[in-house]
Amino acid sequence: MEYLIKFIYAFLLPPGLFVTLLAALAFWMFRKKQRFCYVFGGLTLFMYLAFIPLTGILLVHPLENHYLPPDHPEGDVIVMLGGGATLGTPDMNGEGQLSGDAANRLLTTFRLYKLTKLPIILSGGKVYPDSGVEAEIGRRQLVALGVPENKVFIENKSITTRTNALNTKKILVTHHFKMPILVTSAFHMPRAVMIFKKIGIDVTPYPTDYLVSKKLALYPGQFVPSSGGIAFTALKEYVGMLASAF
């Protein structure tokens, strides 16, 4: 019964509500024999496919499975890319917190540090006026976890993956690092590797922050509209990869 209620709610609340309204409009136009009913019918189908979790999973899977974390990562520095931060929010030892994506990346970076004792480069600046400076927040949190401050380098100007790569390269060259281990979200890793390679940096990918499970499971919840929006996350990566190829 609970699943049935969730199924119904999904079509009565945004974004499912928009699909329901468009479908009703298309049906009404069809009954009135108006030619534009097919246009609205197609738009309804597009919106439905865009908002159901299954579409996002199918789009994200190839991105997240492109690279696997190596069992024994080899390198001379860990590079973590930022993924969002809040400004002025309370934290245990200061203000500002990393977003979900960035926090997952930081956790993996810390675990890699514990395993390898390699120095760390945090790359990420203040993306929006109400954003925190990602690299500075990350350094504060890593130091609080026990990483020596002199082991953490920060690059706090980047606002895109391309500027992440360009600004990180300056630190790599200055400190003679040759074998960076790159930490970022699994869905973001193919684009990040492509951009780093384009400016002459070969990295060892260490993906983390997976959005979808390894195994695909089909159940009714996969076919109801959701506000999760991972399909749009995946499309952003594909468009970014296409743009980076030129």
Automatic annotation (TrEMBL):
GO cellular component terms, semicolon-separated: plasma membrane
Coiled-coil stretches noted in the UniProt entry, renumbered to this chain: none
Q: Where are the transmembrane segments?
A: 6-30, 37-60
Give residue ranges for domain DUF218.
76-240
Keyword Cytoplasm tagged: no
Sorted UniProt keywords: Membrane, Transmembrane, Transmembrane helix
Note whether Transmembrane helix occurs among the keywords.
Answer: yes
Tell me the protein's name.
Membrane protein
List this protein's GO terms for biological process. Answer: Gram-negative-bacterium-type cell wall biogenesis; peptidoglycan metabolic process
Classification via InterPro entries? Cell_Envelope_Assoc, DUF218, Rossmann-like_a/b/a_fold
Identify the domain of life: Bacteria
**One Pfam family linked to the record:** DUF218
